[in-house]
TrEMBL record:
The lineage of its organism: Eukaryota, Fungi, Dikarya, Ascomycota, Pezizomycotina. This is Cupredoxin. SUPFAM superfamilies: Cupredoxins. The keyword Plastid does not apply. It comes from the Eukaryota. Belongs to the multicopper oxidase family. The chain crosses the membrane at residues 555-575. Keywords: Copper, Membrane, Metal-binding, Oxidoreductase, Signal, Transmembrane, Transmembrane helix. CDD domains: CuRO_1_Fet3p, CuRO_2_Fet3p_like, CuRO_3_Fet3p.
Length: 590
């Protein structure tokens, strides 16, 4: 491929896998992140973020053991950027994980950031921007890490990868402005304009009769989950989020934003017709469905290029797989009893500016002046006190090798996919809808070999319980992967093994150079105080709560009645009615 360079450098290391010697390569990418244009749904040519002038972005195909060196140049001119390697462990290299203000500084226009790390895992992953809600403007693509120990090797003929996603015509900075706004007090998310399959709407997959394919599917969308099915063909699920599983046959899978599945599909022997392959956005997520919205994207398995392309059947004729029952092939058993149980009550509500935000335990995430990792590295013993990272990073300090339970109670009536950086977690329990709070006394047993993944969704007003081992020193976000909710503050921070980080991490000079270019401080507590680490004066904080006497419902009613009266008066009425003179200028939450 002409748009990136791959150098096979003299083998750096030899890895032994069950007696096979595998040579590890250094794979170097030179990327210029810059604007280009595309019209993937055939309805609107719009600016998109490409790499070296190309969009869709390249699918990366790496091998376990490889070293990746990605020289990421920000050629956007008018936005900062960053790359997150979704699902990667980054052992001893948490500073390569990507989220700005967490483990690095924003890459400002004109700067080049070097991501440099080795791959000690395999499976289907993806890479995307972690700056603001940027990736839905195009900076997202699948990434495969080939496994020398692939348990399904020999059981298929060819590997294929496709993405699913939602697509907007407006750009994310504008969508976010409208979403987190007094004119949107209920927090209704922007509804996509269309759905895409492999970044297009006319996707055709030529197949050969009798062959078996390993089809790898990732949802790279901003917001909408998708039902996926191939008519006339069952799928045997063999991988979730980078974890090989025992085969489980199904006619349909359900992928939230950021989730991945790999499936084995065997082709028919006759080539008399072609078969629809459908992605259908979960309309439960949309507050209202615009009359002109086609929430499906249909592609075809093409046995016969000249042949008929039939229309798909109804969604209700298929039944999605319940991922909770999958079993990893590696047999990793349920971790022992937890050392810490972290209960997160998530809710969505209005703050004093009348806009809608999202909360874990009443805290809406706000990023800080000093990236959290740099605070860890420069505060000595104080690093084990979560206070220094700033109230609104919602930081929890974990000790090395602790077993951690996260209980997530969804007080909201929507579905939310949660992603933990730097780990995959065991899934112990997901409640049905409307169960309310998790009740430990009710749950008698957990799976002996639980499914593990890195992104898992909670049902409306339900709960889930997940467990992971704090065996990976680093600063790791846990957040809702719906970009609108992430930007509305639905995130918190794990500061995992701060002492070990201080002892073992070697952050490259290049990262500090980028901070210098972006003007971000790199030492001290969240507020950049290097003298008194417990003086957080100047830390970034969320908007104040609603003034006393105002309930969120009251604000909503006020704004709604005003919108009903005549469009456009909402903001005026709110500020006019606010008794405490709420400042109309609100700091950005991310
Ligand atoms: C990156 O791409 C932009 C837009 O095409 C171009 O203006 C710029 O010169 C490129 N920068 C580098 C370092 O290649
Ligand atoms: C940056 O420039 C691109 C390309 O001209 C444009 O589409 C985009 O809206 C700009 N972004 C911002 C935040 O102004
Ligand atoms: C990380 O670094 C520590 C200290 O050098 C070392 O003991 C450990 O094996 C490393 N972990 C991995 C996964 O390489
Ligand atoms: C990548 O990291 C390795 C290990 O720290 C180092 O030896 C190498 O020089 C780095 N490569 C680049 C291009 O920075
Ligand atoms: C990725 O590379 C491996 C060889 O390293 C190859 O077998 C496989 O087909 C490739 N996958 C894709 C989707 O190109
Ligand atoms: C999907 O698109 C990517 C990027 O354009 C491409 O590399 C890949 O081969 C496509 N998948 C299939 C099955 O054609
Ligand atoms: C798919 O699996 C279901 C349930 O096992 C079965 O009834 C159906 O016949 C299978 N369909 C195909 C096309 O194999
Ligand atoms: C296709 O033909 C082969 C060889 O005759 C047979 O083993 C296989 O079961 C057939 N596949 C299907 C889906 O009928
Ligand atoms: C989307 O596809 C489903 C399943 O075929 C169908 O029930 C629904 O009517 C389709 N929606 C639109 C807008 O075409
Ligand atoms: C397959 O999934 C079903 C539920 O969807 C579950 O009952 C069954 O135990 C699973 N089988 C395996 C082998 O994981
Ligand atoms: C727990 O069990 C009690 C009694 O069986 C039941 O009333 C309650 O709804 C259950 N709560 C949960 C959270 O499952
Ligand atoms: C949890 O369920 C038990 C019954 O299984 C019940 O006695 C207890 O009150 C419940 N606790 C809460 C907090 O709902
Ligand atoms: Cu969410």
């Amino acid at each position: 491929m002409a748009f990136f360079f791959k150098f096979a450098v003299a083998s750096l290391a030899l890895f032994f896998y069950h007696g096979f010697v595998v040579e590890a390569e250094t794979v170097t990418y030179n990327w210029n992140i810059s604007w280009t244009t595309a019209n993937p749904d055939g309805m609107l040519e719009r600016p998109v973020i490409g790499i070296n002038g190309q969009w869709p972005l390249p699918v990366l195909n790496l091998t376990k053991g490889d070293r990746v060196v990605a020289n990421v140049h920000n050629g956007l001119g008018n936005e900062t950027t960053s790359i997150h390697w979704h699902g990667f462990f980054h052992h001893n290299t948490t500073f390569m994980d990507g989220p700005p203000h967490v483990v690095q500084c924003e890459i400002p226009p004109g700067s080049t950031f070097v991501y440099n790390f080795t791959l000690d895992q395999a499976g289907l992953y993806w890479y995307h921007s972690h700056s603001k809600g940027q990736y839905p403007d195009g900076l997202r693509q699948a990434l495969i890490i080939t496994d020398p120990e692939n348990p399904y090797l020999g059981q298929y003929d060819e590997e294929l990868v496709i993405s699913l996603s939602d697509w907007y015509h407006d750009q994310m900075p504008d969508l976010l402005k409208g979403f987190i706004s007094v004119t949107n007090p209920t927090g209704a998310e922007p509804v996509p304009k269309s759905a895409l399959m492999n970044e297009t709407q006319n996707f055709e997959l030529p197949v050969q009769p009798g062959k078996t394919y390993l089809l790898r599917i990732v949802n790279v969308g901003a917001f909408a989950s998708q039902y996926f099915w191939i008519e006339g063909h069952n799928m045997s699920v063999v991988e979730v989020d980078g974890v090989w599983t025992k085969p489980n046959e199904t006619s349909m899978i359900y992928l939230t934003s950021a989730q991945r599945y790999s499936v084995l599909i065997t082709m028919k022997n006759e080539t008399t017709t072609n078969y629809p392959m459908v992605g259908s956005m979960d309309t439960d997520l949309f507050d209202k469905i615009p009359a002109d919205l086609n929430w499906n994207v249909t592609g075809w398995l093409v046995y016969d290029k000249q042949g008929h392309r039939p229309q798909p059947h109804e969604l209700e004729e298929f039944d999605p797989l319940d991922d909770v029952y999958l079993t990893p092939t590696d047999g990793v058993e349920l971790y022992e009893q937890p050392d810490q149980v972290i209960v997160l009550n998530m809710s969505m509500n209005n703050l004093g500016d009348g806009a809608n935000y999202a909360f874990f335990n009443d805290i809406t995430y706000v990023s800080q002046k000093v990236p959290t990792l740099y605070s860890v590295m420069t505060t000595g013993d104080a690093a084990s006190n979560p206070v220094i990272y700033g109230r609104d990073t919602n930081s929890y300090v974990l000790l090395k090798d602790q077993v951690i339970d996260i209980v997530l109670n969804n007080l909201d009536t929507g579905k939310h996919p949660f992603h933990l950086h730097g780990h995959n977690f065991q899934v112990l329990y997901r409640s049905p809808e409307e169960e309310g709070f998790f009740n430990a006394t009710n749950t008698t047993s957990f799976p002996a070999v639980p499914m593990r993944r890195d992104t898992f969704w909670v049902k409306p007003t339900g709960n889930f319980l997940i467990r992971f081992k704090a065996d990976n020193p680093g600063v790791w976000l846990f957040h809702c992967h719906l970009q609108f909710h992430f930007d509305a503050g639905l995130a918190m921070t794990f500061v995992e093994a701060p002492r070990e980080m201080q002892q073992n991490l070697k952050i490259p000079q290049n990262h500090y150079d980028v901070c210098k270019a972006s003007g971000e401080p790199v030492a001290g507590n969240a507020a950049g105080n290097t003298v008194d680490l417990f003086d957080l004066t100047g830390e970034n904080r969320s908007v104040d709560p609603l003034p006393a006497g105002f309930t969120a419902k009251g604000v909503v009613a006020l704004v709604f009645s005003c919108i009903a009266a005549f469009v456009g008066c909402a903001a005026v009425a709110w500020y006019g009615a606010a008794p405490l003179g709420v400042a109309p200028v609100v700091p950005s939450p991310q």
